[in-house]
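Example record

Each entry pairs one chain with its bound ligand, zinc ion.
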Amino acid sequence: MQFEFAAAAAVDLGAWVVGAADGPGLLAAAAKADKASGGALARAMASCRFTGKRGQVMDVLAPAGVKASRIIVVGLGKPEEFDDGAAAAAAAAALGRLKGTAETRITFELDAPKGGRIRGANLAAHLALGAKLRTYAFNKYRTKELGEHESKLEKITVLTGDAAGARKAWGRCQAVADGVFLARDLVNEPPNVLSPAEFARRAKTLAKTGLKVEVLGEAGMRKLGMGALLGVGQGSERESQLVVLQWHGARRKTAAPIAFVGKGVCFDSGGLSLKPGPSMMGMKGDMGGAAAVVGTMQALAARRAKVNAVGVLGLVENMPDGKAQRPDDVVKSMSGQTVEVLNTDAEGRLVLADALWYAQDRFKPKIVVDLATLTGAILIALGVEHAGLFSNDDRLADRLIDAGKKAGEPVWRLPLAKGYDKLLKSKIADMKNIGGPNAGSITAAQFLQRFVKETTAWAHLDIAGVAWQEGEHKPLIPSWSTGWGVRILDRLVADHYED
Ligand code: BES
Ligand code: MN
Ligand code: ZN
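Structure tokens for the complex follow.
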């Protein structure tokens, strides 16, 4: 797909996208299109009850008086609420209209509504970002006629008064979008293909972007004493892997980095505490945290972010087998603490226990953020609209809440407290890996906190509700996997941790 930024010009080919805002109605380019088409837009608006509300889209086919094959009018919503996210969503909604059509070109001529919060080069770049995120498709395993899955679109043009500025802003947006695509590809990939070793191999190819990538196998992890992580992978034919990605972009190469840690369970069968069939479906996506971390690291490298950052991925497959870990086993983590494993399906926390400890022990990071499809309970609490946020540091938590809002990946904070922590008491070891029947997401976070040093500012994002989606319900996400996490982490870094 080609992206182009150009000065305003007549649109004589393909789809022409113009905007209307809730209140002001048709904006300048839309009014121009309406006039050229002899008032076709105004008539269509009335018949469609189109008022410019956010999310509304209307298209007028083959209008007389204009050369474009169709005019698409997108609703930008209330001018004062028109921001980065709204711009991206509006562009994505326009693209949605082209699904299954023969259009090869789409041109955006979207004016910033007066009083809006985004305009100029930044608006143009975010329109392109929204359009790009919507073009994502995962068709590598389709061998038949692609039909509706295939887009004929070749070129996306954004008309803007500041094409040079837009191209510059686009550089950053494009790096982020490519990171999101990488994360989506990894989550969509079936588990027979994406083993821990294959995931690690793909991470290694990122060395070409300037990232330093190291991979540890089981022998290396055993030396480090990672009994918690290794126990989870023990029932799998495939070797567990620990991947470490480093980006040195800060002025001082030795400055303490920020660290991202990802749960990378390439398939979660539950282990001997086997999941029932319907709950096992989709568990190829249980590496969504690790995917988001790799996607973010790639984005930081691609946009040459002025930060030192490390990504640590705990990659395992959780399988039942004669060699598998049993409920009742006791394992020793790298931190020295022992865990009684009462449910082998509460495996993500065991993987993260060692990955979190490793990240802190080796890198002494300024902050640690982990991402994990950790609990089904977070879906019960928050559904698919927010990821769960837990943190021992109010400043980091507030920064994540703000970054999430801006990036269109909102998070909602839930508590950590001693009262929940006691639910992890074990009869024979330092702790057990499950709490009681209630507060499942909180007890999981409490478990993780036991592997976080008191001096580390840490946040945990439970992304079990947002890493993938059933059906198609978000304008920027056309596929099962969402790539959730790349945009919020990139925003967090850009706003707070760059020189
Ligand atoms: N990977 C799952 C969590 C999950 C559930 C992610 C649904 C996405 C959708 C995790 O490893 C798990 O199995 N958690 C258990 C924990 C329980 C055994 C304490 C759960 O949520 O049921
Ligand atoms: Mn599990
Ligand atoms: Zn899991």
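Residues 268, 286, 343, 345-348, 373-377, 434, 440, 464 surround BES (ligand 1) (CB under 6 Å).
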